[in-house]
Amino acid sequence: MLSIDSKFICEASRINRKYGLDSINENITFTLMKKVALSLTLFMFSATAFSQTGFGIKVGGMISTKTVGDLNRNLELTKASYLGGVFYSIPFSEQLGLQLELLNANKGISEPDQFLIREDPQYHNLPVMLQYAITKRFGVEIGPEIGYLLEQKQIFRSGTQPGSPAQKSFDMAVNLGVNYALVEKVFLSLRYNVGIYDTIKPFNEFFPDRLPQEDPFTGNRTLQFSLGYRISQ
Question: Which domain holds residue 135?
């Protein structure tokens, strides 16, 4: 199982309340997210002056999981979930362009046969995708993504509880995908999202006698399928 044991959660909560670790980390993360959002906004306005841009919406589903330690471990703990949001396209040429997105995504895992049935971390994600059109209908894309944890909860057999205090508020990933234009303004997108940022705080923040190298890397991973509609282009 991927859940933090009850002893760790209780001790972590006590230390967080004493030293205010969560509020400090969240303030730092929120400040970083504001700077990134401002930079993207300025970039969009500057790009608008030199190119014909487009705005749209996209919705879809995804298979979400979480890797711990070895990348081949725990991939069977998947969860069917959803995503949705808006995007802003900036073409550089007929084949090359940039797409900025703001997506709401429900990540986490599902373990129906265990005491912890499901994790539901809710993220706001900001993907920045470089897109290349191979044909008029088919294209490929690649780019980074940053995310901010809005809220989280864990569904146990005994009921719903707040998420673990060890969960970080920041996330970072790399996206690789393909897209296919059905008609002029409607397209399908398939994207593989690999987390490259450890989303769990080091245990030695809560237990000083624990060595940092004992902490396994914990990252999000999703396979996303979405339908997009270009409102303007």
Answer: 6-232
